[in-house]
Amino acid sequence: MSKTEAMASAVPAEDWSGWRRWGDSDSVDFPSVIGSGYARSDAPGKARVALEVRPQHMNRFGNMHGGFAAGFADHAYFIALWAMGREDQMAALTIDLSMQYLGLGKRGLTMIADVELLKETGKMLFLRMTIAQGDGLIAASTATLRKVIVAK
Q: Domain Thioesterase: where (predicted)?
């Protein structure tokens, strides 16, 4: 199994019909801290990435840690590219990522990141996302990614 396949298995889960599972439970690298979840793309340049917030994602006050939210956002941009069929850019580099925290993330609830590819140039990808739990937004983000050169 390739590293991309380990990160993002294409086997849909029963409770997530139409979604693709991502994550590698046997991994010991940074993505294992994030966990695993589900992703789907229903329109060109758009994807949704889902993750359940777990106890290890919480701060000492019982809310989702802001640093975890930023790490998830960075990871979710790449999972979204995978869901959009852009496996060729899974190794792109994050040049810039900004976060705006809009509410408190809670444990046990699924976060849904709605990701949009705003623009693509020869060398760059410009993306944005909103992250929601339940009916409320908890964060928004923008990112600029440096594309990797794909051999033809």
A: 61-137
